[in-house]
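User: We ran a pulldown and think these components assemble together. Before we commit to crystallization trials, I'd like a predicted model of the whole complex to look at. Sequences follow.
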Amino acid sequence: MEVASKKSTFKWDSKIPTGPLTEKWKTHKNNIKLVNPSNKRKYNIIVVGTGLAGASAAASLGELGYNVKAFCIQDSARRAHSIAAQGGINAAKNYANDGDSVWRLFYDTIKGGDYRSREANVYRLAEVSNSIIDQCVAQGVPFARDYGGMLVNRSFGGAQLSRTFYARGQTGQQLLLGAYSSLMKTIKSGKVKMFTREEMLDLVTVDGVSKGIISRNLVTGKINRHAADAVLLCTGGYGNVFYLSTNAKNSNVTAAWRCYRKGALFGNPSFTQIHPTCIPVSGEYQSKLTLMSESLRNDGRVWVPKAKNDKRHPNDIPEDERDYYLERIYPSFGNLVPRDVASRNAKNVCDEGRGVGPSGLAVYLDFRDAIKRDSEQAIRERYGNLFEMYEKITDENPYKVPMRIYPAVHYTMGGLWVDYNLMTTVPGLFALGEANFSDHGANRLGASALMQGLADGYFVIPYTVGDYLSGITPGDVNTDHEAFDQAEKAIVGEIEKLLNIKGEKTILDFHRQLGKIMWDKVGMSRDEKGLNEAIAEISALRKEFWENVFVPGEPATYNKYLEYAMRVADFIELGELMARDALARPESCGGHFREESKTPEGEAKRDDENYAYVSAWEFKGVDTPPVHHEEPLVFENVKLTQRSYK
Amino acid sequence: MSTHDLITVHLKVWRQNGPNDRGHFEDYTLKDITTHMSFLEMLDVLNENLMKEKKTPVEFDHDCREGICGSCNLVINGIPHGPQMRTAACQLHMRHFKDNETITIEPWRAKAFPIIKDLVVDRNAFDRIMEAGGYVTMATGNAPDANAVPISKVEADSAMDYAVCIGCGACVASCPNSSASLFTGAKIAQLAKLPQGAPERKKRVIAMVEQMEKEGFGDCSNYGECEAVCPVGISISAIATMRTEYVKALF
Amino acid sequence: MASFSNLLQTTVGRKILTGVTGIFLILFLVAHLAGNLTLFAGDGGEAFNLYAVFLHDLGPLLWIAELGLIILFGLHAYIGIKIYLGKKKARPVDYTYYQSQGGPSKQTFASKTMLISGMVILLFVILHVLHFKYNFFMPQMMVDNPAGGQMIDLAGHVEQAFLNPWIMLAYTAVMLLIGLHLKHGVWSAFISLGAKNPKLVPVLYTVGGIVAALLAVGFLIIPVFIFFNGGLL
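Assistant: Here's a predicted model for the assembly, 1130 residues in total across the polymer chains.
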């Protein structure tokens, strides 16, 4: 099968500033063009999505004086899925006096990403991390503090330093509410206009340049046109392509996908993070997976029975018949190995038939020894709310019976390809936060997603968007332009088509089917045969979808299943691209594990000589294979090493 | 290992075609519902069944399904978010219902939360209350170092107790008077506990309270029902704090 | 802008006024009870009658106090009625099925009947004043003042009234109702006037209950005692 079309002569430039790594961002800020304060009000900017990246960007740009229109699909900007992040946010403050620095945060992040991200971007991220904490505290985010009134940090995700700031188990919520409050303030001042329950369905381009969007009012079903000088996509990740994930039910790829179809390259689509500690699937009806914070691995021990198909109650399995496999395989890191390693090993033991629980797709996370060592009270103080949540969902008491956990799709490192200015290959279209192909390479470290979303929104885009805007005439295209006519007509046609199929299968049937293909063949471990099968199966599923889906209701009303149908249609196309991307990268790196590329002990084996690049895909039509581009990654400051946690 | 029990439930679901429709209850019976299902997953099953019969599914708001986004707004058997305390409807599981139980499902009901369709309501009034003053006025970039102002652990923890509000509106839905005092009070109390909130505390409380009034929420009679149904258990002391802030603002 | 003049315009302002007027009314009840308890002095009601004379002799000061009480009472009742009427406005379509979650909820018989208990109390107060101040239902009686001359025999008036089983029962019932009103009212006033510590909230509820019970029992013990004792000590 043809994975990709022939390479085209697409012109692109990552715009990484020259000069030493530590000076690049400063130099860049000094050199980029500015928009005169009195001219800012002439520019219209659209921000799609109000999560950490979107809310922070919209608020900051409004403060600068731009006219901002912000969009979210939820009934309030505050409900974006950033709200669900539990653990914390990293910063190089070195408040813990343990030797942290911008350099160390940079180094850990680029190494954690298995050397598949840009040095310059990651360094900038580490550099602005400290300002984020200052900003959030000033907004009234109640981070954890000590009795003396100073901020406290914890170590997270196996980091050797304590650099994670947190607000109980609800850090994402508190950061988002901080950004949301700034957004509300800017709305009050009249500089931002908020559109809730309004979904972006297409990007409008004129001569290949982004000039606005087409949106659908989710209450009335009305299709609306919005013209703007720049469009910022802050629409999050696409983990729901797997159907079951820790994402919110409404998280989707549609806005990003439509931009891809309008010419924005899609970077590293197959890079998916599978989080090791989620509550296992309990039945076919399951609609989403719930994450249990990674911090649990600080005290819980992961094990499965040594024997296959051991159906005994976990408390009846004697010590010498238990396999604490992470401690056995990785004596130095033990239960604290990075997410990708922990996930893959859970899959391996379950594949061997040693999984536990009714489905056999789970491993134990046992607190027995920690309770014995530190007392139940101590464990309750540390994880009480998580244990409570676990019991609510599973009806099992984790103080008495080991938790059962299994990996689940959690975050997508892939996304729209952007240059150093966060601009996609469509001029005027920017992507921020999880929606871009991001600074996390092939694997994201814990507590760095919040950092990146806010870095992009508060401290990068306010500078870089001006650089673009200063070079264009504001308001040169309005919504009467024929490009808007065409885009609107296409959307109206698509909706009509979907509603008129009136097939036999529900949207959920298709989504589940897609999810199963993705999980089985484009999931935690991938091989050529499976990926080829996945491409063929997804392509067949796409055809069936457009012939046999049932979409209920009317176009011009509130109709959640119509929204859902459009999103699943895009997920199906995306799934195929993900499989192609995974196929085009025969090495293993980070969360991307190819069976063909492993060390004799079965660990992931990178191939830096041939694959130290970002894959970026160019849309060529639904039935035509996309074009594969490579952006070589140049490492001048870090030495590429094989990650080892033995 | 807990077992999967299968139960039959009879649903009485509020159906309303739009804001101006009168609305009515419709009865549905679902068989073989496993008790490990969440309440929303049970509604998914209902909708799948309806669509297989080519009928219009029941609209309800949901998103994160882990109790933090605040989208769900179901009044289940007369109680917002249902019978389990400190639990949003999405975290409620079917094991809390008996075989053959009749379950009534209604949307939040308040003038300030008009119904959009079926169980979906418009909660933008909450956003407007926040817009009135639920923030610290500071522009991006001009923050001092995060440790420049110490905040005692006690105060920070107390602020966090109020900051955890998920904005679902169950407080309004449960209140016999449809008051939004717990929601508004929680934000005011959070910022009142923190030095960052101090400079504009007077302006904030007045603006937010006046906006609450404009939106058509009712009076607070200290029934405390809001605290009982709050999925994150925010204390009614938030309302007391709002009032003391208001009194301070008078002088 | 917030000002004292538009306290009535916001829910928070109204509740603060309810709390403040409520507290003053409770203080009035305490003073009233203290005066009433002089009936137990064992002097056939002389101390009580002298106390009445003392109040009467305050002249203009008494009128001011009375006017103040009327305003407190009126405002308290006005806001209560306004809140009640606002319910329907804030929820035009009611739930078909509604129940309380229990737990920390203070939705009790007491809190749900505030309007009714309040209205009965209002009615009672009018009758009570007509009864003992304006002698609507009984002729005024006089007795010798130890300081010389005569004084109104209010104690005798009270004694005579409560020997009537119906009046005794009616007063007792109303006092119980006042207790019920205060069971929610005292706690509510604390919350309205800024009991900010979440840990205090349940404590205050208990304290409120105790205050309510003490006041109710303190008042109703007089008619009950007089009736069963066959008169004053």
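Chain A touches chain B through 85 residues (CB under 8 Å). That may be worth checking against your pulldown data before setting up trials.

User: Thanks, that helps.
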